Amino acid sequence: RAIPGVNAIAELSDLAERSDEGGDLSHCSDAVRVRLWSWPARFLAATDGGIDRANSYLARVRALAAGANTSIAEAWLNVTAGDLELGLQRLRASDDPDARSSMFVILLQHRGREQALAWLDAHQHVGPNFFTGTGWRAVAIALAEAGRCDDAATYLTSLGDEKTAECADLDFVEGVVNASLILPMWVRPHAL
Fold this sequence. Notes:
11 helices; mainly alpha; single chain
């Protein structure tokens, strides 16, 4: 989902549609179908033109599994509709790596890098499982762009193969961050 050149929304939507009746994935379990519908809902919810489609996928999820956690997609819908505070409130209620990753990205996009990094710095114990792999990618890039390449390198070095499996781009970001450490301080933020 973080690989440049990949249209994640189109690919996720295609998978979701294939789980409909008559599709080659129509015999998958309800749990798999919920995941197939939840992911495009989350991606579409973050785009102005995707709100109706996101709501359609969320309606399918709710009809199939009333107790399914749709808070991240709903948070993105709130933010896209202009209610940033409600979106952030929804994410604060979910204390998991996925919600924290969305929180960081929303803060980064809507309040700026300084506030997103201040939110990160306010947390005392930030270990490898604090964010998803994609979340760590956003954090590392924001840190590097803020001139904090040493911090980015420290975080990236602490991540295991599990996070790289979640986001293949992490190895590239780590390589660029580490290479930037040999550059003069004033050039480092421009290495990414």
